[in-house]
Amino acid sequence: MLLFLDIDGTLLPFGAPAPYPSYTSRFVPPGAAAAAHPLLDRIDPGLGARLASLGCELVWATTWLGDANTCVAPWLGLPPLPVVDWPDDEDAPARLHWKTRPLVAWAAGRPFVWLDDELTAADRAWVAAHHPARALLHRVDHRYGVTDDDLAAVREWLGGPTAHP
Predict the structure, then answer these.
(1) Which of 6, 85, 129, 148 gives 10 a disulfide partner, CB atoms 3.0 to 4.6 angstroms apart?
(2) Domain CATH code at residue 95
């Protein structure tokens, strides 16, 4: 089972009315390039273990591309992950997210979960019509990023327990 991960608005929250917690003082992996990124300390480093515990093959589905493995993966305590390389000429039909067709192609018929803050009913309908396997397109609230409730929804869809370790 693949799990496609966006970063901005999904792992890295933005736009909330209250200040974000900073995890820098408690969790700074040695030599992490993440320390140089001004917003990365908004990501709870414990999220990496919770994502890994889902038992899926984690894949970066973000415009960060390889920088996701340089900055975010070490911050989360994850190994380098596969990265979806976006086509330059991708023109999505109206209302369809520009990532939708490339992710379905990348999945190559395998079941997948996609966590993103920009998913719509149009994306879900297109995937249901064009992808032969199960797929969960789960929209994350960009103001908070991935929460325990989001992970519980993924676990439920996967058929596992809703609690995290």
Answers:
(1) 6
(2) 3.40.50
The answer as to whether 82 is a domain residue is: yes
Structurally, the chain folds into a number of domains equal to 1
How far apart are alpha carbons 77 and 75 in whole angstroms? 6
Residue 149 near residue 164 (C-beta atoms within 8 A): no
pLDDT tens column, 3-37:
999 999 999 999 888 788 777 745 555 555 555 66
In a domain, 165, yes or no: no
Q: CB of 1 within 8 A of CB of 110?
A: yes
Helices (runs of H) and strands (runs of E) counted in the chain:
6, 4
d(Cα 131, Cα 38) in Å, to the nearest integer?
38
Please state the pTM of the whole predicted model: 0.89
What are 70-122's pLDDT values in tens digits?
989 999 999 999 999 998 866 667 789 999 999 999 999 999 999 999 999 99
Residue at 112 is within a domain: yes
